[in-house]
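quick one before i forget lol
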Amino acid sequence: MGSVLAASSPNPPPPASAGAAAPGLTVPPGFGMPPVSTSLPPTGVTSGQQPEAENPLPNPGAFDECHRKCKEVFPMQMEGVRLVVNKGLSNHFQVNHTVLLSTMADSTYRFGATYVGSKQTGPAEFFPVMVGDMDNSGSLNAQIIHQINSRVRSKLAFQTQQQKFVNWQGDAEFRGEDFTATVTLGNPDVLVGSGIVVTHYLQSITPTLALGGELVYHRRPGEEGAVMSLVGRYTGNNYIATLTLGSAGAHASYYHKANDQLQVGVEFEASPRMQETSMSFGYQLDVPKANLQFKGSVDSNWVVGATLEKKLLPLPLSLVLSSFLNHRKNKFQCGFGITIG
């Protein structure tokens, strides 16, 4: 059960070690930090000379994770009633059932399965990982993730809608000691001459500063184009500031961990094409003694939301309450969820 639950839940940060990253920086699971050389200077080095470290810069993580810490603070919108039942069949296989009853959309049932291999790359990292789920209409979502070696990770994902292929993509990620490079190929069609190629690169400049960029190229009959964006992330002892600039607009986020119980985040987004700007503020409050987690948010469009999650230990049961109110449109949504297992 341990390896299956580790794959189906968010990966915990790796334990601190001699080669750990700077405080506040999230180390991607399955990848260690390059250790700083602590050996004595070789014979012939004078006392006035300082020996060079092998590579003191940490790996910056993935490009897609730059704004992740801030986004995790905000509550997730839910409407209706949701029941999730997780069942572990073995150490490598788990299934889950999800029933969603909604008043605004069709009620659905989803069956999911997770398989985790026996190749261990970390304390809670096992590969390959295969995750898939299918709803009552026959639509399927599936992913296969495999750690080829200590630096290369690959992923293949595809989606069908009512027994028709809608989307599929494959990507390869290479993590060096102080950089991460990713190439993604989506919906390629050699006969028609269409597809999407996305490249990411993130480089650590200092132990606290990382810079990178993204290039998206798409092509289809009679149309092709490219979009480029740049990103910068600064990591402090208890905060992370990130800025993304591109032709599509700007996205800035700030994450701050006040203490072990309180985390806050602020996001700003601007789109020149849509001529819209928005700002959001969110926070997360954890009460470990009560097994309680509360998230709240408010944005410039006067949308206020909150979620409350309570774990009923020692039972494998958790309850979730969600509510969102749009003051401008005078719309209110409320949700209730139960997770077993």
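fyi Residues 1-52 have pLDDT under 50 and may be disordered.
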